[in-house]
Write a structure and sequence with these properties.
Elements lengths: L9 E2 L7 E7 L2 E8 L5 H13 L1 H24 L9 H6 L2 E8 L3 E7 L8 E6 L5 E7 L1
Parallel strand pairs: 3-4
Antiparallel strand pairs: 1-2, 2-3, 4-5, 5-6, 6-7
Length: 140
């Protein structure tokens, strides 16, 4: 579905050997980085193609991980007292996918803008097995 972006990748200007691209998703530009990390390029490309072909499915899984790991933390600890307590749909609708990083043959990071809910940190939902999102990291 969104894997056509892989036909127009450009080398990263920093010289690290990674490839960069971007595409439109839900009205926003999403950037991607393919970093083979010493593995065969074909395997890194296959990982990216798998995720981009079924992006809505994988994004739903990533958002579910965000919900499981961060929902109560937002309402209980990060929410400004004047702001309403959010339900699941309201919480998840505030996240915007901004970047996807494909590392090696099985690591994928979805970077989300948090719409200020967590102090404007990037929320990075991570898969280390090339299939399941198991970790959320707050960055920035």
């Amino acid at each position: 579905m969104y894997d056509s972006v892989l036909d127009n990748l450009k080398p990263n200007e920093n010289g690290d050997g990674s490839l960069l691209g971007s595409f439109e998703y839900k009205g926003q530009t999403v950037t991607i980085n393919l970093d083979r990390d010493g593995e065969p390029a074909e395997r890194n490309l296959a990982l990216a193609r798998k995720f981009l072909t079924d992006l809505p499915l994988y994004e739903n899984a990533a958002l579910e991980r965000l919900y499981e790991d961060c929902f109560s933390m937002y309402n209980d600890d990060w929410r400004v007292e004047e702001d309403p307590i959010l339900d699941k749909a309201q919480f998840l609708n505030r996240f915007t996918l901004k970047h996807i990083w494909f590392l090696s043959t099985d690591s994928v990071d979805f970077f989300y803008d948090d719409d200020g809910m967590f102090g404007n940190h990037s929320m990075i939902v991570q898969s280390f097995d090339g299939e399941n999102f198991t970790h959320v990291q707050m960055y920035g």
